[in-house]
Amino acid sequence: MATSGTTSFDLNIDDIIEEAYERCGIRTNSGYDLRSARRSLNLLFSEWGNRGVHLWKVALQEQVLSSGTATYNAPTGCSDILEAYISTGTGIGPSITDVSLTKIDRSAYAGLPNKGSTGQPSQYYVNRQTTPTITLYLTPDAVTYTYVKYYYIGRIEDAGAYTNQADIVYRFLPCMCSGLAYYLSMKKAPARTQELRLIYEDELQRALTEDGQRTSVYISPQTFYGDGV
């Protein structure tokens, strides 16, 4: 049996919009309807940012440290910093040493004494503003460890032009189309909203489950020893 031999299927933004409208039982070529759908798609991407970590948007940033400087801006489009470590250099290799840092919240950072003390950092605090910042404690002296490296999660890119493809991986295509259909139904086909919402939530849950990392887990029973009585 012949197969295509390709695995490159994707959808342009206009194809996504057309699919979503068809699920609502609507066909339209109105310019306003297209703009409305693109706006709803961007809102859908924003809502996904509240659903957890999307692995395809996780990236590694290497920031050179300056002696006496504790706070550094994260890259544009960063949503949050997941984990961080200091390093003796860039990249990886036998000559590079990394030391993990502990993430603390704002209250813990506020309670730290003498935040200007310099030395080898052991903790970091993320201030999640429009452009998040990472603050190290102790303030780095940049003698041995000259870089801070961290994994951050970026925002999903805007839909943009109708000829663009969405900034998602292929396993999220079904829930993206069903999610846009659900959003559009609230404006165009309210009688189908509940049905489309259930389909969307079901497909999104499957995609989020598949987007996890598979790692080995070892479970050991807890052992209790009596006192001999």
Describe the structure.
With 229 residues, the protein is of the alpha+beta class. The protein folds into two domains: 13-52 and 158-175 and 183-210, no CATH class; 55-154, no CATH class. It is built from five helices and ten strands. It has helices at 13-23, 31-48, 106-110, 173-188, 193-210; strands at residues 58-64, 71-73, 78-87, 98-100, 102-104, 118-119, 123-127, 133-137, 139-140, 147-154. The strands form three sheets. The protein has a four-stranded antiparallel β-sheet with strand order 1-10-3-4, with no helix packed on it. It has a four-stranded mixed β-sheet with strand order 2-8-7-5. Strands 6-9 form a two-stranded parallel sheet. A hairpin with a 5-residue loop joins β7 and β8 (133-137). α1 packs across α4, α2 (31-48) packs across α4 and α4 runs antiparallel to α5. The longest helix is centred in the first third of the chain and has 18 residues, at 31-48. It is elongated. The protein starts with 12 loop residues before the first helix and ends in a 19-residue tail after the last helix. The mean pLDDT is 93.
